[in-house]
């Protein structure tokens, strides 16, 4: 039987319902990095158009940009920008008629205080409305040793679980760099760090699942960014081995772990469907939607060069006001981002699968 949910930001038990529906229905949702109202609105528009639920996420830099690059105190800007984006989605997702999951992307050791400050805002929102502000946060301590990684995850999850929040953790390393977290030096098809050990996934399951809900970014050779073919070797069978080990040890049934696919941009389509069959419910996409957004601006400038040099044509007196109106430029970028997301929803099999009603 199929469940339905009210459109809007989804948290707590409703989030679990959404995850279950995705895993049982063998589809995943795109998690799109947004940096402005333009990109947030494009994601909601694309989700509504494709009748799919969607994950909207902010990196620390994206959150800062949302607050405004000129906003004083970069730490406060990262916190307030994320809070501002969250309120924007709370207000509008319902109106777009979709279920939106609100999430923050990679936070390394230095960014733990950022996540803790955001949890504070969710606690406050929970005490007023019965819902946290964010559905989940990510803590990426994969650059630290695993004892520290897991104990910090447990510490934060103990605080998040009582208000219905979920935590995404990372084991193994996603290659490449995402907004200052990680590095390009580790890219290479033979780097063992790029492939998570199933034993580590079992350890995370045993420690965290009694505390609350967590999802797991396990590495199977994935990298952030788009690189020359051959530099990336995806091995989704690593995910299968991790799921099997947890199932064999604890008799959970198939695919007990809720897995996340980082670095989805530029990935081969058949590896995406393999990953979904091994329990991936979320695929991050940033590089490809960034390119879609910027590409449209580039072509617009190419097609209307004079409108970016003159307000009035020096030869024939034509006014260019309509061409240089920023809405015209940004709308083209949004439309192009929506088109790239059409492809992502199709790749992930989520078209028409929204639970919103
Ligand atoms: Zn990532």
Could you describe the 3D structure shown?
The protein has 357 residues and is of the alpha/beta class. It has one domain (8-295, 340-348): Aldolase class I (TIM Barrel). Helix content is 47%, strand content 13%. The protein has twelve helices and eleven strands. Strands 2-3-4-5-6-9-10-11 form an eight-stranded parallel β-barrel, surrounded by nine helices. A two-stranded antiparallel ribbon has the order 7-8. Helix 4 (74-96) packs across helix 5 (112-129), helix 7 (198-208) packs across helix 8 and helix 10 (287-303) runs antiparallel to helix 12. The chain is globular. The relative contact order is 0.15. The model has no long low-confidence stretch (mean pLDDT 93). The protein binds zinc ion (ZN). Zinc ion binds at residues 106, 174, 178, 224, 262-263, 284.
Structural class of the helix and strand makeup? alpha/beta
CATH superfamily: Aldolase class I
Helical proportion, percent range: 40-55%
Count the domains: 1
- Could you tell me the CATH topology label: TIM Barrel
Per CATH, the architecture is Alpha-Beta Barrel
In short:
The chain is an alpha/beta fold. It contains twelve helices and eleven strands.
Produce the secondary structure layout.
Layout: E1 8-9, H1 12-24, E2 29-33, H2 37-50, E3 54-58, H3 60-67, H4 74-96, E4 99-104, H5 112-129, E5 136-139, H6 146-160, E6 166-171, E7 176-178, E8 181-183, H7 198-208, E9 214-218, H8 237-250, E10 259-261, H9 269-277, E11 280-285, H10 287-303, H11 321-324, H12 326-348
Parallel strand pairs: 1-4, 2-3, 2-11, 3-4, 4-5, 5-6, 6-9, 9-10, 10-11
Antiparallel strand pairs: 7-8
